[in-house]
Amino acid sequence: MIIYESPAYVLRVIRMLFFQKNLIKPAVIIFVAIAALITTVSIPHKSFIKNTATCDELGEYSLKAETQAEQAGFLFRFGLKAEGKPVRTDRVMIPSDFGDIYTRYNKLQKPIGLDLSPYKGKEAERVVYKLESGKLATLLIYRGRVIGGHIASGIYGEPYTSVSVLSSSSVK
Questions:
Q1: For residues 103 and 109, is the Cβ–Cβ distance under 8 A?
Q2: Which of 17, 50, 103, 127 is the most buried (most CB within 10 A)?
Q3: For the whole model, what pTM was predicted?
């Protein structure tokens, strides 16, 4: 077990690693590897996360959904009014390989400018709101951005529709 007595001790160890001829190469490799790991972990990879989407009925609109107010605002843009706080919030895994169900579900998203494909294999937050109409609105949220959603009656097996009230798309 190594006990660090002072910062000077740490500096002596570093000097020893970098200035002894037989240890220079391994020490540099370790230093570069640690620096690369720190850089990779500390820089969030959000390049595929969209901030906006575009659809025929709204044009370009925000996908920001970090707060309940932003989530309710997202629904409101599509003519849907949430009744207060979410009735359920949990985590779901977007499958790496879309079977028939997710392929059809993703087809439901595309008319409103959303696409789940970049999120394959990612975990998303599922937030469910009760609407004034009595139906349930489900939003899939990844890193504070809406990536998908649907409207359903809440009865298992009944079809669900796009969050767009003007869209006639539905999936069973």
A1: no
A2: 127
A3: 0.70
Please check whether residue 92 is in contact with residue 85, taking contact to mean a CB–CB distance below 8 angstroms. Answer: no
Look at residue 44 in the predicted model and tell me its pLDDT: 47
What are the boundaries of each domain within the chain?
Answer: 7-42, 52-171
Phi-psi region of 2 (alpha: psi -120 to 50; beta: other; left: phi over 0): beta
The amino acid that residue 119 corresponds to is Y
How far is residue 57's CA from residue 39's CA, in Å, rounded to a whole number? 41
Residue 12: phi and psi, rounded to 5, are: -65, -40
Portion of the chain with pLDDT greater than 90, in percent: 55
pLDDT higher at 100 or 4? 100
Q: What CA–CA distance (Å, rounded) separates 135 from 58?
A: 22
